[in-house]
Amino acid sequence: MGLMIKTQFGLGVVSIPQVFDSLGIVPGIICVIAIAAVTTWSNYVIGTFKLNHPEVYSIDDAGNLMFGRVGREILGFAVCIYWIFACGSGLLSTSIALNAVSAHGTCTAVFVAVAAIASFSVGSIQTLGKIKWTAWAGVVTVLVAVLITTIAVPLQGRPEAASDIENWESDYKIVGTPSFVKALTAVASTIFAYAGTPGKFSSFNRCASWPFLTPCPGFFPIAAEMRDPSQYTRSLIGCQLVVTSIYLSIGTVIYIYCGSYVSSPALGSAGTLIKKISYGIALPGLVVSTVMVLHFSSKYLFVRILRGSVHLSSNSFKHWATWLGCTFAITTSSYLIASGIPIFQELVSLIGALLGTFMSFQPMGCMWLYDNWKAGREKPTFRWGFLSAWNILIIVAGTFIMIAGTYASVVNIVASSKAASGSSAWSCADNSNS
């Protein structure tokens, strides 16, 4: 269960208060619980699919089994793109933390570049698997930083954004009235918060005998390597309950005491001093998360390029040129994303809509149908009919949110960049005060 929590918990927690601001507390809580339920089912399907097909090690393996070579390539490409965007969100979060700690010591575009250079330098170390303990440290620092903010917000009396308002009172909403665009982006942000586990599959677990290749987080590897697979479901439910409880408690407290003045990310909500402390504590975790995602995505490309070649495990020039080329390409792509969309909530909602749904909804619905549709049609039961309808609904809902949510996120990004207080691409404006 600990590995599952480590894989699931991340940057999504600091976007939940903003989701509540868009939807209102009650619809926001319902949205979080609904997404938690769907992703719990999706991750459960991963476990059963792995038990039914021991030869499947990754999401692209599952795609190959269900849809052939086309399925492998589409799902493998989607995972890689998801990683790149996740790395971009990590670079952006790191730039926000550097802005907060240094009181906007320099241009934000410079901080994004610094984060990219640091991530490239560390992420290019091929023996990163030996310091996997840093991932645990990263989770702890982010959680501690969020808890400090959550405790400080009520004590502070008012959020940072309302510091100049006399007789301020929180304007939190029990039920919000968001537009279609705002509602969809809020749902997409919630999906991002839960998309960590199914999105982080590994295509190189079978290469783990090579010391440079280490398994990455994900529920396929966890299901594959559990000593007692019967404990998978219990661990999954425990993980989802813990993560959902954290999301709901932190999101509710921060939003109630901040209202519409809640910051995004939420670490900036409790005043200048607490903001510096929270971001200072979270900074190592943000860097570690970015480095890990950069490393995994680079390794995916690296293995795909050199698979079957003697250069995959040799110490040759081609080996190192390919490896550094992959890490540089991923870093550059992530840097362009972080600089081109320098607004945290908008970037998170775009990732959740465009890629989070495709990692957490449609493939898992297809997996269940692949294993159960044919046999169930021969002797249909109420349970089979209900679960068939449920999984078809997941596929349809995921596709709708992916298309409509991506549109809504793009609309929000364009509107935010045009706003007087917005941040444009490659902007020097302080992005820690949003």
What would you say this structure looks like, in words?
This protein is mainly α and 434 residues long. It has a single domain, classed as Sodium/glucose cotransporter, CATH 1.20.1730. α5 packs antiparallel against α12. The protein starts with a helix and ends in a 16-residue tail after the last helix. Its main location: membrane. It is a multi-pass membrane protein. One of its GO terms (molecular function) is L-amino acid transmembrane transporter activity.
Present the secondary structure layout.
Elements: H1 2-8, H2 16-23, H3 25-52, H4 59-67, H5 69-102, H6 108-123, H7 133-156, H8 180-194, H9 196-199, H10 219-225, H11 232-258, H12 272-306, H13 317-340, H14 344-360, H15 362-378, H16 382-418
Helix pairs in contact: 1-11, 2-3, 2-8, 2-11, 3-8, 3-10, 3-11, 3-15, 4-5, 4-15, 5-6, 5-12, 5-13, 5-14, 6-12, 6-13, 7-11, 7-12, 8-14, 8-16, 12-13, 14-16, 15-16
